[in-house]
Amino acid sequence: MSDSTIIELKDVQIEQQKTVVLKDISLKIEKGEFVYFVGKTGSGKSSLLKSLYGDVSINNGSGSVLNCDIIKAKRKKILSLRRKIGIIFQDFELLTDRSVADNLKFIMKATGWKGKQKINDSITELLEKVGMSDKANSFPHLMSGGEQQRIAIARALVNDPQLILADEPTGNLDPETSIQIMNLLNKIASNGKTIVMATHDYSIIEAFKGRVIKFENQNISE
């Protein structure tokens, strides 16, 4: 695996509840690529995304993400890999009982950040990046879906990951807000980050060019 290869899977099989979702999958993603996973619900997009950060196990074949063997790695190694990956969910998964700043602080502390000043400066910088500078003290449940997703993106950027995995990040948003979120993701990608995004919204793929991997019949194709 070369330094520029971020993800490499060979002849991989993935099962969910003992049902084969994907079989004999091979895939290579290079640094800086923007890749779409497209296909119907249940076609295996989310399962494959989850397998890339060790949340769904891979049954056979070989798989490497950011030079970590995701099939043989022990839990400690998987946890260390997750710190190098930014994950964005469809339903935001923000902690509703605490402010935006405290949501970011929670992730920072969980991943070993130290120093109050450093943490506060980074929160300011992250919120600026996603256009949410004035929302540090707001609570997620009082914000719009688009605002919550921006905060979720800020959270994904906490540890300056090389790889960002986004599972239907515009799935719960109206078209106009979806465009804003895609503009933001594209801006992040233009800084050399690799983004892999599951979606079934073809209008987004038309508007924002990327490499398209199609999921159907337990398989993938370009």
Fill in the CATH topology of the domain at 1-84 and 165-172 and 196-222.
Rossmann fold
What is the CATH C level class of the domain at 1-84 and 165-172 and 196-222, in words? Alpha Beta
Which class do the helix and strand fractions yield? alpha/beta
Q: Output mean pLDDT.
A: 93
Distance between the termini: 21 Å
Cα-atom radius of gyration: 17 Å
Spell out the helices and strands N to C: EEEHEEHEHHHEHEHEE
Q: State the helix count.
A: 7
Q: How helical, in percent, are the residues? A: 25-40%
- CATH architecture annotation of the domain at 1-84 and 165-172 and 196-222: 3-Layer(aba) Sandwich
CATH homologous superfamily assignment of the domain at 1-84 and 165-172 and 196-222: P-loop containing nucleotide triphosphate hydrolases
Large-scale geometry: globular
Low-confidence stretches: none
Strand content: 25-35%
Strand neighbour order, sheet with most strands: 6-7-8-3-9-10
Can you walk me through this structure?
By secondary structure, this protein is α/β, with parallel strands linked by helices. It has a domain at 1-84 and 165-172 and 196-222: 3-Layer(aba) Sandwich (Rossmann fold), CATH 3.40.50.300. It has seven helices and ten strands. A six-stranded mixed beta sheet has the order 6-7-8-3-9-10, with helices on both faces. The chain has a four-stranded antiparallel beta sheet with strand order 2-1-4-5, covered by helices on one side. Helix 6 links the parallel strand 7 and strand 8. The longest helix has 15 residues, at 175-189. The chain is globular, with a radius of gyration of 17 Å.
